[in-house]
Design goal:
The protein is α/β, with parallel strands linked by helices. It has 17 helices and 6 strands. It has one domain. The longest helix has 29 residues.
């Protein structure tokens, strides 16, 4: 499935809720991963942007000195969306669930539901658990589980705990940092639920196909085992070029363009506007967002902040 990487870089909230509580120890010696890190400067305030992958491996850690220095200097840590507060968790759980009278099988059809049964058998997941979820939540869960397996992580909780955003959150909580968000849970779920039925079915079908036939993986799926190395070495161009070369699937151009526009382009504009407002207010910020929001050459948060007059540079040297 060529869209999975973008989906993962946006949100893994549904899978986190099903996987349960997570925990780990955060360390930060002098040397480590470069990450996908940018510095933003202007007349007021300073900001660092770190590109996140929501499912990770031990190879990606510890964070390098540039990242840990930027975190130490920040007053406020900013994330895409609140998925951990009691109110947010309750809202996400509520909106994941299908309304009374609707069934997943009725929404996706008999053929795709049969494939989903085969997928849950292969992944040792409970079909009954997925049965009560809306299609976007099912796709989110399958993407996280399959990607963790492709990265060599068999424990989904461990794989999620190694996600970049979760590591950053642990540091921020341990150091008493302030927290802010660029989107509400409702805003993010509105976007996912706003996908056309054709796009939802395409995404679910693609995910099932990849899980059942991994030998046929192409595009970004074929490069998943390289993600930790790309992130550790700060190779933003690798993520960008691989995505741009694979996100359009022949025969599904309309669905792929809708996906890209709604999941990335439109949200980039909204998030860049909010970040610009934060910078105008002054202060030091450490921002963690899905890395595709930063690395694409057109319409990225990085480019939009530059258009607002800010200087944005990638931090490569450690």
């Amino acid at each position: 499935m060529r869209k999975k990487q973008a989906w993962l870089w946006v949100a893994a909230a549904a899978a986190m809720l099903l996987a349960g509580a997570l925990g780990w120890v955060f360390t930060h010696p002098a040397e480590g991963s470069k990450g996908i890190l940018y510095r933003v400067t202007g007349e007021q305030g300073e900001m660092y942007l770190l590109g996140s992958i929501h499912v990770g491996t031990k190879e990606m850690y510890p964070f390098g000195q540039a990242i840990t220095d930027a975190m130490a200097a920040a007053d406020t840590f900013v994330y895409e969306c609140d998925t951990t507060s009691d109110a947010a968790v309750a809202e996400i759980r509520s909106r994941m669930a299908l309304p009374d009278g609707q069934t997943l099988k009725g929404l996706i059809g008999d053929t795709l539901y049969t494939e989903l049964e085969a997928v849950t058998d292969k992944l040792s997941l409970s079909l009954a658990t997925l049965d009560g979820l809306k299609p976007w939540a099912v796709i989110d869960n399958l993407a996280v589980y399959s990607t963790a397996a492709e990265l060599g992580e068999t424990d989904i909780s461990a794989a999620l705990s190694l996600g970049v955003e979760k590591k950053v959150q642990t540091y921020a909580q341990g150091h008493g940092k302030q927290t802010a968000y660029l989107e509400t849970a409702d805003e993010q779920i509105d976007m996912l639920e706003g996908f056309s039925d054709a796009l939802k079915n395409y995404l679910l079908q693609s995910e099932c196909d990849t899980i059942l036939n991994p030998q046929n993986a192409s595009g970004m799926d074929a490069s998943i085992n390289q993600w930790p190395t790309w992130w550790r070495t700060g190779d933003a161009a690798a993520f960008s070029s691989q995505y741009l070369g694979s996100y359009i699937t022949p025969g599904y151009e309309t669905q792929c363009q809708e996906y890209h526009d709604k999941l990335i382009t439109q949200r980039n504009a909204h998030m860049a506007e909010k970040l610009g407002q934060m910078l105008q207010d002054g202060g030091n910020y450490f921002v963690t967002v899905g890395l595709l929001h930063l690395t694409l050459p057109e319409g990225s948060i990085v480019e939009r902040l530059r258009e607002q007059g800010y200087t944005v540079e990638q931090i490569i040297a450690q």
